[in-house]
Sequence to fold (370 residues):
Amino acid sequence: MTERVMVIFGGVSTEHEISCRSAYYIIGALREAGYEVCPVGITLQGEWISFHCKDEVLLSEDWVIQAKAALVESGSERIPRSVSSVRHFLASFCDNQLPDLIFPAVHGINCEDGALQGLLQLSDIPYVGSPVRASAVAMDKVSCKVIAVAAGVPQVPFLAFDRQDIAVRLEDIIAEIETQLGYPCFLKPSNGGSSVGTCSARQREELISALNEVAQYDEVVLVETFIDGRELEVAVLGNRELEVAPVGEIIKAEDVEYYDYETKYLSDSGASVRIPADIPENLQAELQSYAMRIYRACGCAGLSRVDFFWDRRDGKVYFNEINTLPGFTPISLYPQAFAKVGYTLPGLVKRLCDLAVEKHFEQRRRTSRS
Fold:
């Protein structure tokens, strides 16, 4: 019997468009691996929609319009009128049949921060990726840094400030940053991904502007010492037993200061990926070890990509962040890295589905004991 996989994409997130791109490739790979796929989109307004269009529509900006038109044409219900459980709610998007497994092809806030994972947990259906707590911790960069410190993973010096605090005591905060971190410094939302809302500051006027800008994206602003370093990334796969791919490197163009949203997704020449990275073997082993350490410390499952900086000045390595649902587009490092060790994209998504079932079985076993 063919297993039915629900692929959830889109979401109320600044990374909505990237999610649709990832979903396109994940859906194709799942079908090639022999799964029946039930795609479900979440609009920017939070509306859930069954997706009955050709896969290519996912790459268009008007996928919502086309998906709704397809539903009207087929006479299908767009939203279930009455559901008695999360399971029934999800089944209503798959012709009232429960999916065997759920593959979240989503990124960013409201999607990979534990919010969606909590809903999926209540469904008692296996789902790909980390559980609620790990998803929330990994998305919140300040919390993740605290865990990384406890796990003995080196950090870039950082400070964190509440949005309201910035509005009330801006001068004190500027003085604190200048005293403890200095210039240049790098600012980012504590919650967020794909470098959305990030910026750098090299002097006071830029810092004031950056603090106000980044505070629009999240309640907490993270400020770090700017590291002029190479950006190295480690793809991790597994639950208890982990596989790590060769370390990859993001090669930025000379005129690109840092790997921001535009460089990642909108520019054809801003950056490229090199796998394996041209680094010493001992450094590769060190990064892979750190990646597994932070993966386990956060309680991740299924997959993650762990990002580091390698300082050009002193050769030190610093943990940057962990991404529990990395991109699956042709330019994404995660699938490219595991391709280097023999995983085809269909083989990789099948392995992730198997890990989801394994994780679900383990969670049920623990629950039955309590």
User: Anything to note?
Assistant: The CA atoms of residues 126 and 361 lie 8 Å apart. The longest strand covers residues 229-238. Residues 138-153+229-352 form a domain with the D-amino Acid Aminotransferase; Chain A, domain 1 fold (CATH 3.30.470.20).
